[in-house]
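PROTEIN DESIGN WORKSHEET
SECTION A - STRUCTURE
LENGTH: 312
TOKENS:
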């Protein structure tokens, strides 16, 4: 058996003693497997740091397996005198906190039995989101394709939802986005909130609901439409919902779509903060390929309006 020398044992003991380990959690904003790094909008770590978005290194790339923007993760953060890294990165699965803990599982089964068309798989991260057209709170036709060159955040609600941790919280998240990116909405960021109860949530109902959030109708659209059209959109993102004694049992999804109409994130549940969602949107908006694409779109639109500019 090979033995360490007393000096090596002493050095290892000092290193272990000088390193601190913290429990951390947050929302993944970006993953860089090449450089073994992921960026997290991290909750505060008591005794170490306030909540902030920051990159974390890992020692082994397998720690990043399965990570994607929008994932909620728990991990250990090791801080030594000269370096720091994350280990034991674990994706936190979303568990419904409905009144009945079996609701989420029953919900999917009921949907499959009542509507076999809902059984198709939702869009995968990186896929292009198909175009769709619905009607907003001002009775305008709104198509996803008209926001080419902009980042789109999309969520789902129904206006009769009585639980504060569900539709109310999801809508509040977008209210925070609207305030935080006050200069960008309509130019670089568009918010789309789709009702999954279109028979009751007609434009006038959505208009009243939107006024509760002081939603700017130029950049935050509350969408409804024929049941089949709404179901097509909900199916894209894996939304589950089912009538239950006048209310709706439902899952929760918030999606981020980049300027090229690629799905960047499809966040399930409500176990994240509005600031974490805003950090994710900011990351998508600031990615170099997204900035270049947005600038190209704006230049093309300006040229279409004013004609090509000549150099002097």
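SECTION B - SEQUENCE
RESIDUE ASSIGNMENT:
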């Amino acid at each position: 058996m090979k033995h360490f020398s007393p000096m090596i044992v002493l050095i290892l003991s000092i290193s272990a003693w000088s390193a601190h380990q913290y429990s951390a959690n947050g929302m993944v904003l970006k993953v860089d497997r090449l450089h073994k790094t992921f960026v997290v909008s991290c909750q505060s770590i008591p005794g170490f740091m306030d909540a902030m978005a920051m990159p974390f290194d890992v020692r082994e790339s397998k720690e990043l397996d399965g990570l994607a923007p929008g994932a909620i993760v728990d991990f250990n953060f090791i801080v030594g005198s000269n370096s720091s890294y994350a280990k034991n990165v674990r994706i936190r699965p979303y568990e419904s906190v409905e009144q009945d803990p079996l609701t989420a599982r029953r919900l999917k089964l009921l949907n499959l039995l009542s509507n076999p068309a809902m059984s198709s798989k939702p869009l995968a991260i990186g896929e292009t989101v198909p175009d769709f057209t619905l009607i907003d709170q001002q009775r305008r036709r709104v198509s996803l394709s008209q926001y080419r060159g902009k980042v789109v955040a999309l969520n789902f609600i129904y206006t009769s939802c009585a639980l504060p941790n569900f539709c109310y919280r999801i809508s509040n998240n977008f209210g925070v986005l609207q305030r935080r990116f006050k200069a960008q909405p309509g130019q670089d960021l568009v918010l789309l909130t789709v009702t999954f109860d279109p028979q009751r949530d007609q434009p006038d109902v959505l208009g009243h609901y939107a006024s509760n959030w002081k939603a700017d109708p130029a950049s935050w659209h509350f969408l409804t439409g024929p049941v089949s059209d709404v179901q097509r959109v909900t199916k894209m993102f894996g939304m589950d919902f089912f009538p239950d004694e006048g209310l709706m049992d439902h899952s929760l999804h918030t999606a981020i779509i980049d300027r090229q109409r690629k799905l960047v994130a499809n966040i399930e549940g409500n176990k994240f903060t509005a600031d974490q969602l805003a950090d994710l949107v900011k990351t998508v908006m600031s990615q170099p390929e997204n900035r270049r694409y947005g600038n190209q779109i704006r230049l093309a639109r300006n040229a279409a309006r004013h004609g090509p500019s000549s150099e002097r």
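SECTION C - NOTES
Residues 21-91 form a domain with the OB fold (Dihydrolipoamide Acetyltransferase, E2P) fold (CATH 2.40.50.320).
The longest strand covers residues 20-32.
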